Structure formats: structure tokens, C-alpha cells
Amino acid sequence: MQFGIFSVGDVTADPTTGRTPTERERIKAMVAIALKAEEVGLDVFATGEHHNPPFVPSSPTTMLGYIAARTEKLVLSTSTTLITTNDPVKIAEDYAMLQHLADGRVDLMMGRGNTGPVYPWFGQDIREGINLAIENYALLRRLWREDVVDWEGKFRTTLQGFTSTPRPMDDVPPFVWHGSIRSPEIAEQAAFYGDGFFHNNIFWPADHTKRMVEFYRTRYAHYGHGTAEQAIVGLGGQVFMRKNSQDAVREFRPYFDNAPVYGHGPSLEDFTEQTPLTVGSPQQVIERTLSFREYAGDYQRQLFLMDHAGLPLKTVLEQLDLLGEEVVPVLRKEFAKGRPADVPEAPTHASLLAAAAEEKKADKDKKEVGA
């Protein structure tokens, strides 16, 4: 199982000081957070993709390429790659390039984002959001798996004899997660292709997450990729910790109360009761996170949101120390207990390469038997 963090890259004023970081400071802070994630033993760093204030990560591959050069083990991912408004040709080429630069330490999460105006900014119609996600991803898969592609669709110009470059590393495309909070069509898409499904459940109650994950697992089995229990699932999470739970609540409250997304809305207490947000001691975070398995089953990736709402970099780095030193080691041990042997681990380039080699060997043996 993989543990990591994801960032939305918001530029938000610190409510306790009134100071807003510059865009440059926020970008550099995201890099520092990624480096810290590797230092404390986490597996994954994921960045969002946004094209509007107050967010800065408009070019995920630029940031991840820079982080790749400064890390050795960290899997570099996205918490959203906008499959609806990006050209699939550009996605195919950008992420294949990143894959080579990072020696295979790359996967990505397809999503539609949370900003409606991004559609007209990139010449698309938000009413076609689901259809764009389906058609664009179908083309992206072909671009990564076929050396020469002829294509005609509804949303982009025709391709004739097109080859995207560079080709995926070792002829193995990056693993793809499909991220959705509320759209069963996206869970269906993930299941159809045998890809991963990431439910970013940070704003949703457990029963909603359970329904979405169960639907994906059922459809994954329906399409013949394995049993429902073998489907590849990822979950989000949101935490703030201090050694003493009362200190955590007292320190985090002003950030929660003024956060751009949920500030001036539900109380901190109501939100922590109704969603996976956990504010307290490391032990409380451990217990809450372990409870996700009760409604999501044995899953492969757990990402936490920790750098948002104006929290200063120093505080975020302290959170990562607690996560890496006190929380994740226990989660690794406890999640491994009772995990069925046939539940797959989180996909990596090495595991995908091995699977591709096995498939080629099986095809060869089949042809030889037929001959």
C-alpha cells in the first residue's frame, strides 16, 4: 500500500497573521513539501492542476520534472490532470517525457477539475464534460499503446498517421487513476479499462464513498479484470496533528474557519464528524484512517491533504514529520494485517513492466501451441 500527500496549490492568506504568500513562495513551498515527503519515507507526492487564482500549479509536469531531479524514490503523480480541457496529444507527450526523466516514477490521475470556467478558457463546453473525459481518454490510451494512430472524434481535429513522442518508457504507459467525487460515469470508465479509481472523499460522508467504491469494484469485476476485491482503489484524507489533540484543534480552528472551500460554513466539529477530516493526535489519525477499510475494503493508495488554507510551510513540514515518523509506519503494519494475498499492491512501473512481459510470454506460448 502506498501513502503520500497531495496538494491543490492554493495561495491563501494565513488567518493568524494576515500575510499572503507570493506565488513564487507557494511554488517553492510545494517543492519543499515534496522533498520532505521523500525524506520522511512517504511513497507519493501528487499535485493538482488549476488555471485560475488562487491556485499556482498550472503546469504539473514542469513541477514534477523539477522534483524528479531532486528525489530518488518518490512516485510523482497528479491529483488532477484535466482530461477534459487538455489536448490528449499533449498529455501523452508531456507525461511520457516526464516518465523518462523520472525513470518511471510517474503515474497520473485523470479528472474534470472543480472550476467550471476552465472549459470556455480552453475552448470547450462544460455540458460536454463527461463526453470529453470519455473520448479524450480513449484517444490518450491509443497514443500510448499504438505507434501510429489514425483518429476521428467529436472534440479535436482528425489525426492521420500520427506518432506521439517520446514513446512511453519501456513501452509501458504510466498507470492511470480516474478521480471522481460524485460521477459514476468516471468510476465506470476506470472499471472498463481496468485502471485505478481514486475517490477523493475529503468532503463526503463514508456512505457516499462506500457506494462509489463498491460500484467501481463491481464494474471492474464485470469487465473481467479480476475480482471486485482486486480492483485498484485510492482514497483521499485530510488531517492536522499535534501531540496533544486539544492543541491540534486550537491551532487548526482559525485555518478551518477561514478556508476558501469550507470556511464560514459548518463547524469544525460537525465537519470532522461528517467527513474524513481528522484533527487531533497521531493516534486519532491512525484510528480514523484504519476505519476507511471498513467501507472501502483493502485498497492501494492513501493520500493526505496537509498544505492548504494558509497553513505556513513550517507547520506543514512539522505535520509531515509526524505523519512519516508516527502515523504511516503504524498504518503500513496494520493495513497489512489480514490483507488477502490476492489483493494487488499499488501499481508501479516495475510491476507494470513485469505484467507486460508475462502477457507477451503468454501470447507467445499460445501461438506456439496453436502452431
TrEMBL record:
<dbReference type="Pfam" id="PF00296">
    <property type="entry name" value="Bac_luciferase"/>
</dbReference>
<dbReference type="GO" id="GO:0005829">
    <property type="term" value="C:cytosol"/>
</dbReference>
<dbReference type="InterPro" id="IPR050766">
    <property type="entry name" value="Bact_Lucif_Oxidored"/>
</dbReference>
<dbReference type="InterPro" id="IPR011251">
    <property type="entry name" value="Luciferase-like_dom"/>
</dbReference>
<protein>
    <submittedName>
        <fullName>LLM class flavin-dependent oxidoreductase</fullName>
    </submittedName>
</protein>
<dbReference type="InterPro" id="IPR023934">
    <property type="entry name" value="LLM_FMN-dep_put"/>
</dbReference>
<dbReference type="GO" id="GO:0004497">
    <property type="term" value="F:monooxygenase activity"/>
</dbReference>
<keyword id="KW-0503">Monooxygenase</keyword>
<dbReference type="InterPro" id="IPR036661">
    <property type="entry name" value="Luciferase-like_sf"/>
</dbReference>
<feature type="domain" description="Luciferase-like">
    <location>
        <begin position="1"/>
        <end position="295"/>
    </location>
</feature>
<keyword id="KW-0560">Oxidoreductase</keyword>
<dbReference type="GO" id="GO:0016705">
    <property type="term" value="F:oxidoreductase activity, acting on paired donors, with incorporation or reduction of molecular oxygen"/>
</dbReference>
